[in-house]
Write a structure and sequence with these properties.
The chain has about 270 residues and is an alpha/beta fold. The protein folds into 2 domains: about 100 residues, Response regulator (Rossmann fold, 3-Layer(aba) Sandwich), CATH 3.40.50.2300; about 150 residues, P-loop containing nucleotide triphosphate hydrolases (Rossmann fold). Helices cover about 45% and strands about 15% of the residues. The strands form 2 sheets. Strands 2-1-3-4 form a 4-stranded parallel β-sheet, sandwiched between helices. Strands 6-5-7-8 form a 4-stranded parallel β-sheet, with helices on both faces. Helix 6 crosses helix 9 and helix 7 packs across helix 8. The protein is globular and about 65 Å long. The mean pLDDT is about 85.
Length: about 270
């Protein structure tokens, strides 16, 4: 079925890993295969400071807001924000918890991430998520040697969502953007460092993705080098040369979902 021009944008806000919401969001979106689906996950939102950063991102890319936040004050702040900005909002756990309380007469403990057992695997995922968030988009390159996997690619090749997905599997995943006319950080050029995987896409796909993003931000795309197909083609060609010279395995994300890209990365890691 051919997709319509309409786009389904869902923001998933969780005080835990976000896996519960991702499952629900993906299952619901699958019922509308005629719509293009964009999923934005914000894990470990447990303070007003964290929530403020989420607000800024949602304002620049409005969509449906789903949450699993057990803290009443933080959840109310999110609800008020959505009301003020005319955004659809649903606290996924709230109605279910209220129903159980009403049926059993037992009050919920309201423990963030209570569906996850506090075992070794759980703490490994939390550690990986913290690392990944701290090493997103080229941040803290001096500690990249602590990564399990480093993703490299030009802007808008799904590096961040893929890293978050890997982190939810307990993999410390960092990502570094490849920026024209800027040298690669020396920390990712070591042959003895973490596994580096390059992400690439077609110029046509990248131009479309970047134009959509620019329009969402209210930017002019007519004379923008960032969205110009000729500049993008050169950017990708240069990226391929760099990836080849470094000997990095490369994955084309053009027709892959985040899950498929992550699976391909894990396959490379296993074979290595």
């Amino acid at each position: 079925m051919q997709k319509e021009d309409k786009k389904l944008i869902i923001h998933l806000i969780s005080d835990s890993t976000g896996e519960t919401l991702r499952s629900v969001g993906s299952a619901a979106a699958a019922q509308f295969d005629q719509l293009e689906y964009e999923e934005n996950v914000y894990p470990l939102i447990r303070s007003k400071k964290n929530l403020k950063r989420v607000f800024d991102k949602i304002k620049s890319n409005p969509g449906i807001v789903l949450c699993t936040l057990v803290d009443d004050e933080i959840r109310k702040k999110l609800k008020d924000f959505c009301n003020e900005n005319n955004l659809s909002y649903m606290p996924f756990m709230n109605n279910i918890v209220s129903l159980i309380e009403s049926e059993t007469g037992v009050k919920a403990t309201k423990q963030p991430g209570g569906q996850h057992q506090l075992n070794e695997d759980y703490f490994k995922r939390i550690e990986a998520l913290n690392y990944t968030i701290e090493h997103d988009d080229g941040q803290n390159v001096e500690t990249l040697d602590g990564a399990d996997i480093i993703l490299v690619g030009v802007s808008r090749t799904s590096k961040t969502p893929t890293c978050i997905y890997l982190a939810n599997q307990g993999i410390k995943a960092a990502n570094v953007p490849l920026i024209p006319s800027q040298n690669l950080p020396k920390e990712i050029q070591s042959k003895n460092g973490p596994l580096v995987v390059a992400l690439i896409t077609t110029p046509q796909n990248l131009a479309e993705v970047r134009k959509k993003r620019a329009l969402e931000l209210g930017l002019d795309t007519k004379n923008d080098e960032y969205t110009n197909i000729e500049n993008i083609t050169k950017e990708i060609d240069e990226a391929k040369k760099i990836f080849g010279s470094m000997g990095w395995p490369t994955i084309d994300t053009t027709r892959r979902s985040v899950e498929e890209t992550a699976a391909a990365i894990m396959n490379i890691r296993t074979q290595g």
